[in-house]
Amino acid sequence: MKENGYHYMESGLRNIWLASGYEFVETRYGRGIAIHDVPGLHALIGRILAKKSRLTGAELRFLRKEMGLSQRALGELLGASDQAVAKWEKTSRVPKTADRMTRLIYLEHMDGNAPIRATIERINDTDNAVQERIVAEESATGWKIAA
Predict the structure, then answer these.
(1) Could you give the CA distance from residue 17 to residue 139 in angstroms, rounded to a whole number?
(2) Both ends of the chain: CA-CA distance in Å?
(3) 13: number of Cβ within 10 Å
(4) CATH of domain 37-128
(5) Quick check: 106 and 62 in contact, CB under 8 A?
(6) Are 33 and 23 in contact (CB under 8 A)?
(7) For residue 54, what is the DSSP state?
(8) Does residue 125 contact residue 74 with C-beta atoms inside 8 Å?
(9) pLDDT (tens digit per residue) in 105-126
């Protein structure tokens, strides 16, 4: 409802309401919503979250996704496993050091810190790289890489 604002659940966060910057539109599938300047909105939300005293699991996930990081990649930056990051996001029990480092990395990333951006880009490239297929075959003398 426009008069009460729009509850922006698409962010993955339950506490975001928009007072403006959106409009209801009719599509061939029915009524929908168009949100203006989603990147700008997400940058604002991210900066607000990064300045909080503690992050919830959903907020950690929001910041991670805004940086384009997988759980594995964020874990690599923080010295943790992807399973640990998944657990933090699910249970909202984010260790204090991981919480602080994620907020710091996010702010530096948004402010254009070149080394942070390069590190994130390198990790994302590694995550997105297609795994080369290795084919092994057994021979009379043992295992070898197939031609």
Answers:
(1) 65
(2) 63
(3) 15
(4) 1.10.260.40
(5) no
(6) yes
(7) S
(8) no
(9) 999 999 988 988 888 888 877 7
pTM of the model as a whole: 0.79
Say which residues have a Cβ less than 8 Å from residue 28's Cβ, sequence separation at least 6. Answer: none
| DSSP string over 84-126 | HHHHHHHH----HHHHHHHHHHHHHHHTT-HHHHHHHHHHHHH
| Positive or negative: CA dihedral 8, 41, 114, 51 | negative
If you ran DSSP here, which 8-state letter would residue 130 be given?
P
Token couple for 111? 């402010």
Instruction: Supply the DSSP symbol for 78.
Output: H
Q: 35-44, 114-123, 131-140 — which one is most confidently predicted on average?
A: 35-44
For the chain, which residues make up each domain, given as ranges?
A: 1-36, 37-128
> Using CA atoms, how far apart are residues 27 and 17, in angstroms rounded to an integer?
23
Distance CA 99, CA 95 (A): 6
